[in-house]
Design brief:
single chain; 159 residues; mainly alpha
Length: 159
Amino acid sequence: MPFYTVMTPPPEGDRREEIEQARLIPEHFAWGAFLLTGLWFLGKRLWLATLFFVLFWGTLIWLNSRFGLHAGALSLIYWAIALFLGVEGNNLVLRKLARQGWRLADVVEARNLAEAERRYFERALAGEAALPQVEAAPAAARPSGPLPIIGLFPEARGR
């Protein structure tokens, strides 16, 4: 079954409102990004990625007119980029949300989006989200004695 990553907006007060505004991003191949790369960027509001995409293709078209690249090379470049975006497209959306202050709230396993939403809302409203808030562990003190070495060298010798 596919997984869905749940992102919640930055905290502004009401916890229930945050839960209702959560976005579920599927963790699978993005066919839209694979088949319609530039339009997919615009549809997901990835403005910087759209700009880089347009600049890259503008440069490639200019190089083609200047040096005459082989049509097979252009096709290979396009499909390689499309394959990369199909695999990593949803991660670009997650990174955009993280930069905007959205937080990872949960990861849900479900057959489809509706079932994933139902499972997340049930867990979140019951107060048992799968990813609890983890506090940073204090820095461990360095041991004073010699440290054992695991590997090819039988003992540790300082330089």
